Amino acid sequence: MDGFAVVDTETTGIDAAHRHRIAEVAVVHLDRDGAVTGEWSTLLNPERDLGPQAIHQITAAEARQAPRFADIAGDLVDRLRGRVVVAHNWPFDAMHLRAEFTRIGLDTPFDDLAGLCTMRAASVVMPHSRRSLLACCTTAGLPAMRWHTARDDAMAAGALLGHMLASAPDAVQPTAEQLRAAAWAWPDLPRDRVAPAHRRPADHVEPHFLARLVEHLPRDEEPAVDAYFAVLDDALLDRRVSASDADALVDVATRLGLRRTDVLAIHHTYLRALVDAAGEMGERERADIALVARLLGITPDAIGAPVALDRAPTIGGLVLHPGDKIVLTGMMTNDRDVLTARAAAAGLRVMTTVSRLTRVVAAADPDTMSRKADSARALGVPVVDEAAFVRALAALEG
Predict the structure, then answer these.
(1) Of 125-129, 183-187, 242-246, 387-391, which gets the smallest average pLDDT?
(2) Which strand ranges, in their side-by-side order, compose the sheet holding 325-329?
(3) Dihedral sign for Cα atoms in the order 41, 42, 44, 49
(4) Strand 22-30 with 36-43, pairing
(5) String of b and e for 271-288 (b: at least 16 CB within 10 Å)?
(6) Phi then psi for 118, rounded to 5 degrees?
(7) SS3 107
(8) How far apart are CA 230 and CA 234, in angstroms?
(9) Beta-carbon count within 10 A of 211 CB
(10) Whether the Cβ atoms of residue 119 and residue 39 lie closer than 8 Å to each other
(11) Among 252, 203, 232, 241, CA closest to 61
């Protein structure tokens, strides 16, 4: 064998049989003595909702632009070929890798005995440790990592393997099954088709979408401002501009031949319409308009008009009415059954599929790639986050 390939996956759920997918994969190479000789990782577009984002912290804005598994299969195979595969709780990673390769028509040797499991080995070497990767590494005296990222979890599992190779080599000697898997005759697949995609740094700040407008396109007609306003209405339903919203706004502006300066002027007009509806307004509404101003790239001081409302603004805010059809998607913070019951009690019609008559789709992450959200975008139905939906539901409940 050529050494070890330590793998880790972050997934959209625990059961590959229920359509859960890999959202991030990493491979760390170790030589026979446990020294790290290389590493590789990438986010993946799972083409579905991302599931437990509170655990893996992968956002839909990151995953939606990542490669699909089929795009990187050749790169992954090249990093597994000739090596004993290793993972902490190998059967879990084996199940998901096997399912992904099966989807692209490729057989694998990845049964539950084909990989060296550091969790199982650690139960022999350090029987008093709990079974998690964090607990095993702590017991072994290894440094903390950024847990629940595929790259760092793979590095941590590799460090744990290196520790056991040095302290208890008999517990981690490859078995005949593992050596047979290492010698598997993988087919030659295309490599380097796409670049790996990585997580954004924790302190990453996404540039405002106005900065992404194509400035060199000339104006060839008067812009259809109402068309842009309609997109902007939906974008501001939940008082945020998600990555999908920003893409839609940039696309509309570009198709209309609008330059950055044109769009900024339109945003001022939009905000003025919001303020012109003003009567008397409290601090909450004032903060709301200031937030919309910031989302539009306008400083609150530039509003230049009395900030007062005699009624809540409907522009840029989600308002629900009895009889509205709504759809829920994704793993939400609130219990889905409770939200459904509240919505039904308030007179909303909770549907399982999206149609042109759907008022709104509420998602755990508004950039989700779930089928429901994809259908909503295709039909022009707004997709808002859970917090915006809960606020609108509370207002309807009175």
Answers:
(1) 242-246
(2) 349-351, 325-329, 358-363, 383-385
(3) positive
(4) antiparallel
(5) beebbebbeebeeebeeb
(6) -70, -25
(7) coil
(8) 7
(9) 11
(10) no
(11) 241
pLDDT (tens digit per residue) in 14-50: 888 878 999 999 999 999 999 999 999 999 999 999 9
Give the whole-angstrom CA distance, residue 331 versus residue 385. 11
Both tokens of residue 251? 């696309």
Which tops the pLDDT comparison, 84 or 320?
A: 84
At residue 179, what is the residue type?
A: L
How far, CA to CA in Å, does 385 sit from each of 90, 330, 362? 35, 10, 6
Q: What's at 363, amino acid-wise? A: A
Higher per-residue pLDDT: 274 or 118: 118
Domains with residue ranges and CATH for the chain: 4-182 (3.30.420.10), 209-303 (no CATH), 325-397 (3.40.50.10190)
CA-closest candidate to residue 103, choices 188, 196, 186, 20: 20
Which residues, including other chains, have CB under 8 Å from residue 386's CB and lie 6 or more apart? 330, 332, 333, 334, 362, 363, 364
pLDDT of residue 52: 86
CA 170 – CA 351 distance, rounded (Å): 57
Task: Out of 25-39, 98-112, 178-192, 210-224, pick the least confident.
Answer: 210-224
Task: Give CA–CA dist 209/315, Å, rounded.
Answer: 20
Q: What is the DSSP letter of 217?
A: P
The C-alpha atoms of residue 379 and residue 188 are separated, in whole angstroms, by: 41
Distance of CA 387 to the CA centre of its chain: 17
pLDDT value for 18: 79
Q: What's the longest Cα–Cα distance across the chain?
A: 79
